[in-house]
Backbone:
């Protein structure tokens, strides 16, 4: 069953009339510059498909873990309003909340939150895949490799940035980008797509890790169309020297990379694990910029849509959409579903310690409901993927 929103093809005049008829803009006390950051006037809507919930078994063969960095409930609601009231995320029926505190502080950073989600171990600020004593911890990605599953990491930031790094690398500090890049070669991961080219190719130690990746049999791509065309084999896609730009610069790298990754990784009969990060939701939160934030949220939701298309056909794939923490203490003080207009405000340019939502679709999805800790995400995935051993 397809649910199409037709407002995108209505003339702009009609949209304005509809807007005037249904929503009132209140006069604001803020400056024009602040207004431009705090008002999303509405944009094109995309159609959202409804997916069925028919799965083969009670446990999944494949796990797709989306992490919206800095994504709280308000960020999701803002995106929902901006798309006329519906997101691909609306297909998810199993919803819970996770606590996010780290070993060292109530308000977490992304490195230690990703380490907790990936390994089930809480640690200190800035830690990448290490415990409070800087000992390496085994993550769900390492465990998947050991069991013969295919694995992948995708991010809109540098692939060496905190969230993807914590799933594979072991370093005492998140800023050790070159050491983190080196750790990527120590494990037989199948697919990496993100920015961070220079941490592999233009290093202070003079090593060229791209040559080493090539020797290990990876296809190395730098263009979105090359990633879109990739059909099989081990793949490293480094699409930016450091971080990818905003959506208008980077294009549909996240949805395209998601689709290519799922097609490639699903060639493995034993299954796969992939983590896909919407990194810049967090950066938009730090900037207190609602336009940037909604662009990032909608791009992230489109990637979730590609994964739902795959999972509906595949019937053995669990999709989890999680968050590491909320950023910005965001609130919505006006909005309009018909126009896609959102007025927001922020309490801080920093992370906050509020509960963040978690969503699941597929076999085992019911285990991601109620109140959980971020470490439970690792524990439940491990139970679902490997409990038959
Ligand atoms: Zn942040």
Residues:
């Amino acid at each position: 069953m397809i649910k199409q929103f037709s407002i995108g093809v209505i003339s702009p005049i009609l949209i304005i009339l509809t807007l005037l008829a249904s929503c009132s803009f209140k006069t604001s006390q803020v400056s024009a510059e602040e207004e431009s950051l705090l008002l999303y006037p509405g944009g094109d809507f995309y159609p959202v498909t409804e997916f069925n919930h028919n799965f083969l078994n009670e446990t999944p063969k494949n796990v797709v873990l989306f992490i919206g960095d800095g994504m709280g409930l308000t960020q999701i609601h803002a995106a929902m309003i901006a798309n006329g009231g519906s997101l691909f995320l609306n297909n998810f029926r199993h919803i819970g909340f996770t606590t996010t505190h780290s070993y060292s502080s109530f308000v977490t950073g992304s490195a230690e939150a990703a380490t907790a989600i990936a390994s089930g171990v809480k640690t200190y600020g800035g830690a990448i895949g290490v415990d409070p004593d800087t000992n390496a911890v085994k993550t769900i990605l390492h465990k998947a490799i050991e069991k013969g599953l295919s694995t992948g990491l995708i991010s809109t930031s540098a692939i060496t940035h905190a969230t993807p790094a914590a799933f594979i690398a072991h370093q005492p500090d998140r800023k050790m980008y070159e050491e983190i890049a080196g750790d990527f070669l120590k494990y037989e991961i199948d697919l990496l797509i993100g920015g961070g080219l220079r941490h592999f190719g233009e290093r202070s130690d003079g090593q060229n890790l791209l040559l080493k990746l090539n020797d290990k049999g990876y296809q190395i791509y730098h263009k979105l169309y090359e990633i879109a065309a990739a059909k099989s084999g081990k793949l490293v896609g480094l699409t930016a020297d450091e971080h990818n730009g905003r959506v208008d610069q980077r294009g549909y790298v996240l949805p395209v990379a998601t689709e290519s990754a799922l097609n490639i990784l699903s060639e493995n009969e034993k299954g796969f694990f992939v983590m896909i990060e919407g990194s810049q939701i967090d950066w938009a939160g730090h900037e207190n910029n609602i336009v940037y934030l909604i662009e990032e949220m909608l791009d992230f939701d489109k990637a979730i849509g590609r994964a739902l298309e795959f999972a509906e056909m595949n019937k053995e794939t669990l999709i989890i959409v999680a968050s590491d923490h909320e950023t910005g203490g965001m609130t919505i003080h006006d909005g309009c579903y018909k126009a896609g207009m959102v007025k927001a405000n922020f309490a801080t340019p920093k992370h906050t310690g509020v509960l963040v939502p978690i969503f699941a679709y597929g076999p085992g999805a019911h285990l991601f409901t109620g109140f959980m800790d971020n470490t439970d995400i690792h524990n439940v995935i491990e139970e679902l993927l490997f409990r038959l051993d």
Q: What stands out?
A: Residues 290-314 form the longest helix (25 residues). The mean pLDDT is 92. Residues 34-44+61-343+363-370+380-386 form a domain with the Alkaline Phosphatase, subunit A fold (CATH 3.40.720.10).
